[in-house]
Each structure stands twice: as C-alpha cells, then as structure tokens.
Amino acid sequence: MFQAWTLWKEQNALELIDSSIKSSCVVSEVLRCIHVSLLCVQQYPDDRPTMTSVIQMLGSEMKLVNPKEPGFFPTKISDQGKLSSNLKQETSNDELTITSLKGR
C-alpha cells in the first residue's frame, strides 16, 4: 500500500496497473478501485467507509472524498513522500502483545 499511496499523492496511480491488462481494462474503473481501497485503509476507523458505502462507491459514479494518509504508513516516509531504495526496506515497529488470564 506504500507504493499505491505514494503514486496516488504524486498523481501517478496509473503506474499501479499491470502492463498485461492496461490495454484491456477500463482505466477509470481501476482508478476508482484504487481510490476506494485507499479510503478503506485510512488511519482512523471513523474516516473509513462502511461496506455499504464501498459497494455504492464502486457501483456508481458518485463523487469520492480524497483519502487521508493510510494508518500503517510510517511517519518518516510520509514526511518525505518519495520512494527510494533505502526507504523501501524500512519496517514497522508495531508489536503484538497477547495476555492470557488464568484464575487462581
């Protein structure tokens, strides 16, 4: 999603379309799918569309709001807003903790 967000912000989302299908797809529909997918991964759940809204957005020509930065997008990279070989190798520092409660 890092590449999709970066290309979207640079207004180069067409680069996400695989060259093997580019000539046979409806570009406006693909761009709409990319747009909706970026809306679905926004940082705050309240900013994300419901599934009902997603279906409506994909099945109509309704105007879409601009997506905000994805929630998993590292701050350091978003500040620079550019792709580079050393940034592609950055990883998230997210951790998962599981607590198991047992009675005495």
* SSE order: HHHHHH
The average pLDDT score comes to 81
Q: What is the number of domains?
A: 1
User: What would the principal axes of the Cα set say about the shape?
Assistant: elongated
Uncertain residue ranges: 77-81, 83-89
Structure description:
By secondary structure, the protein is mostly helical. The chain has one domain.
Strand-helix topology:
Blueprint: H1 2-9, H2 19-22, H3 27-40, H4 51-58, H5 75-80, H6 85-88
Task: Produce a short descriptive summary.
With 104 residues, this protein is mainly alpha-helical. The chain contains six helices and no strands.
Q: Which key terms come to mind for this protein?
A:
104 residues; mainly alpha; 6 helices; 42% helix; elongated
